[in-house]
Amino acid sequence: MQHEIPSLKNSSIDYFFFTAHKFFGPNGIGVICSKLPTDIGINQYNCEQKLKTYLLDLDALEAWIKCLNVIEELFISGFISREVERLHKYFVENFPKKNEYVELVNPESKYCIFLIRVKDPNISCHDYCHYLEKFGIITRSGNCCSWLSQERYDVNKIFRVSLSAFNLVEEIDRFFYAINNFSPSLCL
């Protein structure tokens, strides 16, 4: 399938990229092209004219091409779906059930995308996510979380944690450790 890359010249877009991270985790993302910087010198101006407003990110493209066959093989072989199912089950079964600060909102989710609600009215999800960041745990909240809906959830109380087939049980355990050892004083 061939896709046309629209011109970036009269656009507020800085990058075009392709992604398959919903299937492959962070390994399934790559930048195709980006705008040239506006503060370029005279020699680079000729290059800009030749490339007509965008540069291919050849390193990202080459890395994607080299990895795609391996990633595709893992996906087709069923490795991805088996691992996602295993990690989902582990996450739901081992999530701290009687935690006074957070709760799992969507254990029935078919994917490894979990919404977690901060129960304490004095703690925002922003503060809680900042606490988790100290453990190297990446979350999404507020406008960064595409799964949140103001009609369904208070966006100040919900954050998202996503797993891919390449996550380890030890990483999930580190997340649970952070949850179990949380104290409001750690948000300050």
UniProtKB/TrEMBL annotation:
InterPro entries: Aminotrans_V_dom, Aminotrans_V_PyrdxlP_BS, PyrdxlP-dep_Trfase, PyrdxlP-dep_Trfase_major, PyrdxlP-dep_Trfase_small. One of its GO terms (molecular function) is lyase activity. Residues 2-35, 81-175 form the Aminotransferase class V domain. Keywords: Lyase, Pyridoxal phosphate. It comes from the Bacteria. The keyword Lipoprotein does not apply. Gene3D superfamilies: Aspartate Aminotransferase, domain 1, Type I PLP-dependent aspartate aminotransferase-like (Major domain). It holds the Pfam family Aminotran_5. Its cofactor is pyridoxal 5'-phosphate. The keyword Lyase applies. Belongs to the class-V pyridoxal-phosphate-dependent aminotransferase family. This is Bifunctional cysteine desulfurase/selenocysteine lyase.
